[in-house]
């Protein structure tokens, strides 16, 4: 199975409003609630692609129960979440129907005690034994040490399980230094990590800091991959209208799914680009439009960079 770790799980709430205006009161036209946090989105997409996925991380309180109830209804995803005494957070995505723009409000998450963090690490070590790959995704809840991902990367490497890291800030900086097989930063995360606003220079710097391979999502410029096998650029397809929340998580699912299906880098990147775009046209994170995915997969161009 593919293991996804979401230390800061969330009940994702999406509101659609005709037009979002600061200082105004809004009538919500549609509400959706989904089990979320980045790794849960990755797992749902992997399951939809036919992979067996297991999710772990912390879960607690009434929001945690609601998250688990909804997760139990998702085919192909096993729940190996670890209890925490505080309540799982909510995140709110507000979609402005007049522009298609999304505004995201993410709660910090429950406080995690040293004993809860130790219990998680024990559970994680056990799960690594049956994992063919692991994805470490999203922000850290309060109380979890800032070097948590570095610790989890090292444990995966010691167990010879390929490990992908998708986070930001100091947890990313320390996690990269622990030498994950792959990191997937966006342009903002790259700039924060390296201090460079020139994305290609920042990608090279990230690899020098320890990551074996880097796949950067550069918005309208698409994906840029720097790997031991070479460098590739995969331009994004024409801008699609919709909700971009979770598009990066679908790219992670595409990269992992391609790796485990034995695909080469260009085909993994094509999956990532097509899934990411197909997520924008689906209503919520962790879902994708299958028709759009198939159509784009046949059309995505991935170019080798030779300089
Ligand atoms: O606060 P984090 O952990 O960075 O991000 C959490 C989150 O906004 O990311 C997903 C989209 O990628 C949402 O489903 C989720 O709630």
Automatic annotation (TrEMBL):
Coiled coil: none annotated. The lineage of its organism: Bacteria, Bacillati, Actinomycetota, Actinomycetes, Kitasatosporales. It holds the Pfam family PfkB. Residues 12-284 form the Carbohydrate kinase PfkB domain. Keywords: ATP-binding, Kinase, Nucleotide-binding, Transferase. This is 1-phosphofructokinase family hexose kinase. InterPro entries: Carboh/pur_kinase_PfkB_CS, PfkB_dom, Ribokinase-like, Tagatose/fructose_Pkinase. CDD domains: FruK_PfkB_like (cd01164). Belongs to the carbohydrate kinase PfkB family. It comes from the Bacteria.
């Amino acid at each position: 199975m593919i293991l996804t770790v979401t230390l800061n799980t969330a009940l994702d709430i999406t509101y659609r409003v005709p037009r979002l205006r600061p200082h105004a009161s809004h009538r919500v036209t549609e509400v959706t609630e989904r089990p979320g946090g980045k790794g849960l989105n990755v797992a749902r997409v992997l399951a939809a692609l036919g992979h067996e996925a297991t999710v772990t991380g912390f879960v607690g309180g009434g929001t945690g129960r609601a998250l688990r109830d909804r997760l139990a209804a998702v085919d192909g995803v096993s729940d190996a979440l670890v209890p925490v005494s505080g309540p799982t957070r909510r995140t709110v995505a507000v979609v402005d129907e007049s522009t298609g723009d999304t505004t995201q409000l993410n709660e910090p998450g429950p406080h995690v005690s040293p004993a809860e963090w130790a219990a998680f690490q024990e559970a994680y070590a056990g799960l690594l034994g049956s994992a063919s790959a692991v994805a470490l995704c999203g922000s850290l809840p309060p109380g979890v040490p800032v070097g948590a991902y570095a610790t989890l990367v090292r444990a995966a490497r010691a167990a010879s399980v390929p490990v992908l890291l998708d986070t930001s800030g100091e947890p990313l900086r320390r996690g990269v230094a622990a030498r994950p097989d792959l990191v997937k930063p966006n342009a903002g995360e790259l700039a924060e990590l390296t201090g460079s606003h020139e994305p290609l220079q920042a990608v090279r710097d990230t690899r020098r800091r320890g990551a074996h391979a880097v796949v950067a999502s550069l918005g309208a410029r698409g994906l840029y991959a720097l790997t031991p096998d070479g460098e590739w650029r995969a331009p994004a397809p024409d801008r699609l209208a919709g909700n971009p929340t979770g598009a990066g998580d679908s790219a992670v699912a595409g990269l992992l799914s391609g790796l485990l299906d034995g695909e080469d880098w260009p085909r993994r990147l094509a999956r990532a680009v097509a899934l990411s775009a197909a997520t924008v046209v689906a209503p919520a994170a962790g879902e994708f439009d299958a028709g759009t995915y198939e159509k784009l997969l046949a059309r995505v161009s991935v170019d080798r960079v030779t300089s």
